[in-house]
Write a structure and sequence with these properties.
mainly alpha, 7 helices, globular
């Protein structure tokens, strides 16, 4: 039995089985991820007039969020947290792309002194590793999903990590970024 879960009819009382719970979790993700995506698109423009400390604080939050979103996507492939539909997969990938864009814009807006402090908290390489493993180990059928995942794995995430390493002058990743590319 399927319930039409919407904002007006959402109720935990409707959950009577694990299938109902999965359905509700997918609904919540379907609401949360597009909303998060919209918020992420506003971050780079809203930071133009904010303080450097505020930008660093938001960047710290995004650097914590990115690997968690990637891990949640990986868990969804395992069937946890409601499982995964094509639409949710595309929402996840969109959020990850926009999170990387926001991280990049915020990092660029920080003064050099704050950029140098980011080495220990810079987690894009962890997120890249999760997405790379997902790409290698999961069957991705839809062309747009394959393209989006590849762009994250071999372009967007490694480019950002290389740029940050160049700016701060310290290696963030223990292994060369080319290792992931050579596995293709």
């Amino acid at each position: 039995k399927k319930y039409d879960v919407s904002a007006s009819s959402f109720s935990l009382l409707l959950i009577t089985s694990s299938e109902d719970l999965d359905y509700h979790v997918r609904y919540l993700r379907g609401v949360f991820l597009p909303s998060l995506s919209q918020i992420l698109t506003t971050i780079p423009t809203s930071q133009n007039s904010s303080s450097s400390d505020g930008g660093k604080a938001i960047l710290d939050v995004l650097l914590q969020l990115l690997p968690r979103i990637c891990q949640d996507l990986d868990s969804a492939f395992e069937g946890y947290s409601g499982g995964l539909t094509k639409k949710l997969l595309l929402h996840f990938l969109d959020v990850i792309h926009k999170c990387i864009d926001a991280i990049s814009a915020l990092f660029d807006s920080l003064p050099r002194s704050l950029q140098y402090q980011m080495k220990s908290s810079f987690t894009v390489n962890q997120a890249a590793s999760i997405i790379w493993d997902l790409f290698r180990e999961r069957t991705l059928v839809q062309a747009s999903v394959i393209k989006s995942t590849l762009m994250l794995c071999i372009d967007k995430m490694p480019s950002l990590v290389r740029r940050v390493e160049k700016i701060i002058g310290v290696c963030i990743v223990d292994k060369p970024l080319s290792d992931n590319t050579s596995e293709l």
